[in-house]
């Protein structure tokens, strides 16, 4: 099925053709017709399946069909994303789609000056892409109005919940007085996300293009058992001997990322950093160097697990196994995108065997293990036997985010509003 068959305007089709869009992906083929009919949507689809076009193109076409004069600080469509990188990527994609139209789009997220974002918002925008925290800051300063909101999209909704944004989401929803068409897109499913969907969606069309919590069948999975202290040495050897290029490496801590980059450089491997302590401009430069091949490796914390769009990325390495099994799906979703082949490599120490068992249970497959000669872990057999023979051990749950989940929504909103008001007062004082 082609984009030409969807009844989009000539200006929109022209832009899509220039980008190279021809045939709809499965999620686009299912979501676009339903969204064009005005239905609320709950879509479960892994990353790299074309979700941005699936929710944004119907919105763009509707805005083209019903033009309205832009009013000060007013937005017609709001797209919420969990990270700066994803928000920026979505806004860039929409700008590419709308280049031959009068539709305007901007993104607001942390790491950028409030004043420059305020200037863009003051003109009024058709489509606003935002992270929840920065949007609330603008709302508290009256820099943006949701009074006439027509469309509301949650992208990577599961990740927003994992990051503890449920309170911020509730604050935003409280300020919406209209009944916008709402679409919720997610790579994985959970009880908390289903509860949110039930609360905000009206008779939604449920769209699933892959089994829930699955990984792309274009990705090859492999595990290297190794002692924790030898992971860096193993990574350098694999990159060097196998001549890996463009390797995205995930770690759990910023300190680990900093040290790993230093060690790789000592081994003659150019590596760059992407984590929360780095300014947005520095993270953008690192990503560009990585994309352009100036750096062979990019070491990232979980902040980069969503939103990074690196075409034909061949390798993702889990240097540290993720705290949550679901995050394995998000991390390796950076490779094997849009039908391309990819490789997901995980280093697993004795202490991380439980996480591996939980990941295998989640994705429904046993991951192939490769024991590299010279890197055999110590005293591994006894642990493995215990893990696979005792149900109570193998069925243990991993660490959970959102420890305050049992608190009432009202308490969370009140606490969040107090913090925001204090921050807004400081910002106002600085402006004066």
Automatic annotation (TrEMBL):
SMART domains: DEXDc, HELICc. It comes from the Bacteria. Residues 234-378 form the Helicase C-terminal domain. Residues 32-207 form the Helicase ATP-binding domain. Keywords: ATP-binding, Helicase, Hydrolase, Nucleotide-binding. A motif (Q motif) lies at residues 1-29. This is RNA helicase. It comes from Photobacterium leiognathi.
């Amino acid at each position: 099925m082609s984009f030409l068959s969807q009844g989009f305007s000539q200006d929109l089709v022209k832009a899509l053709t220039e980008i190279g869009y021809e045939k709809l992906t499965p999620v686009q083929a299912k979501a676009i017709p339903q969204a064009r009919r005005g239905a609320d949507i709950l879509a479960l689809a892994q990353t790299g399946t074309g979700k941005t076009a699936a929710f944004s193109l119907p919105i763009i076409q509707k805005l083209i069909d019903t033009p309205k004069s832009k009013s000060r600080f007013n937005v017609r469509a709001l797209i919420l994303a969990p990270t700066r990188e994803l928000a920026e990527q979505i806004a860039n994609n929409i700008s590419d789609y709308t280049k031959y139209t009068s539709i305007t789009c901007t993104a607001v997220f942390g790491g950028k000056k409030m004043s420059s974002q305020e200037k863009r918002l003051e003109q009024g925008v058709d489509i606003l892409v935002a992270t929840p925290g920065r949007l609330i800051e603008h709302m508290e300063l009256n820099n943006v109005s949701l009074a006439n909101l027509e469309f509301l999209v949650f992208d990577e909704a599961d990740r927003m919940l994992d990051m503890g944004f449920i309170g911020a989401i509730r604050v935003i929803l409280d300020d919406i007085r209209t009944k916008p068409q709402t679409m919720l897109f997610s790579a994985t499913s959970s009880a908390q996300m289903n509860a949110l969907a039930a609360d905000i969606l009206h008779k939604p069309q449920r769209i699933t293009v892959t089994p829930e919590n699955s990984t792309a069948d274009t990705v090859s999975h492999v595990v290297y058992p190794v002692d924790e202290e030898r992971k860096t040495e193993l990574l350098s050897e694999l990159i060097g001997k196998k001549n890996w290029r463009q390797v995205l490496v995930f770690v759990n801590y910023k300190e680990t990322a900093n040290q790993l980059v230093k060690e790789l450089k000592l081994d003659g491997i150019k590596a760059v950093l992407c984590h929360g302590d780095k300014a947005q401009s520095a993270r953008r430069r690192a990503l560009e160097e990585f994309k352009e091949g100036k750096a062979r490796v990019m070491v990232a914390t979980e902040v980069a697990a969503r939103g990074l769009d690196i075409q034909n990325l061949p390798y993702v390495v889990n240097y540290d196994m993720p705290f949550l099994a679901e995050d394995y799906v998000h991390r390796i979703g950076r490779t094997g995108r849009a039908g391309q082949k990819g490789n997901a490599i995980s280093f697993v120490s004795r202490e991380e065997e439980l996480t591996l068992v939980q990941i295998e249970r989640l994705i429904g497959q046993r991951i192939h293990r490769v024991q590299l000669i010279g890197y055999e872990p110590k005293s591994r057999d006894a642990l493995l036997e215990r893990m696979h023979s005792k149900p109570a051990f193998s069925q243990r749950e991993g660490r959970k985010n959102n420890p305050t989940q049992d608190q009432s929504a009202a308490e969370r909103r009140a606490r969040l509003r107090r913090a925001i008001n204090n921050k807004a007062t400081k910002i106002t004082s600085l402006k004066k």
